[in-house]
Amino acid sequence: xxxxxxxxxxxxxxxxxxxxxxxxxxxxxxxxxxxxxxxxxxxxxxxxxxxxxxxxxxxxxxxxxxxxxxxxxxxxxxxxxxxxxxxxxxxxxxxxxxxxxxxxxxxxxxxxxxxxxxxxxxxxxxxxxxxxxxxxxxxxxxxxxxxxxxxxxxxxxxxxxxxxxxxxxxxxxxxxxxxxxxxxxxxxxxxxxxxxxxxxxxxxxxxxxxxxxxxxxxx
Length: 219
Known about the structure:
The protein has helices at 6-16, 192-218; strands at residues 28-37, 51-52, 61-62, 64-65, 68-69, 76-78, 81-88, 95-102, 117-122, 126-129, 135-136, 146-147, 154-156, 159-168, 173-182. It is α+β, with helices and mostly antiparallel strands. The radius of gyration is 28 Å and the shape is globular.
């Protein structure tokens, strides 16, 4: 009677349980911000005047979110949960912030590149986001305007970031709070192709054992 090739069976069983993929755990950095005078919808009312945090020579006046500022750090790692920073934006009473994010601590920008998220401190009514079609400020000096898509959060890998509070006083100073959450990824699933290989390997092992047994019987 043919002997079962245990090595082949174990190898095939190992292949059968290999996952198709693994969950990602991306980081998310705030890499830049610009501010501009705004209406309640996010339309830029101060164009071409802007403030920004970029170390590159955009020619715009300086603003800051925490240590993110011209001549300061070029990015801030946002941790899961709430992240609150002091902000000085340069505009009041209604100001919009164009925010840029990256999965790494550095990011390069194209001239007139639109922000990933636009948050507004609306005088008298608090936090809002740029509306769909709003003409917002973008990267660079005298760079024109960009049409905003209307998103209220930004997803990068398996992380989602939004602004949950933007509170500025009449001097355009105050705080901004970012909220970072996991959006989750699909659970790994068993691999279909390796299972096929498993059956093939098992059949081949049994066939080899059968041939050896027949050869021994003929001797």
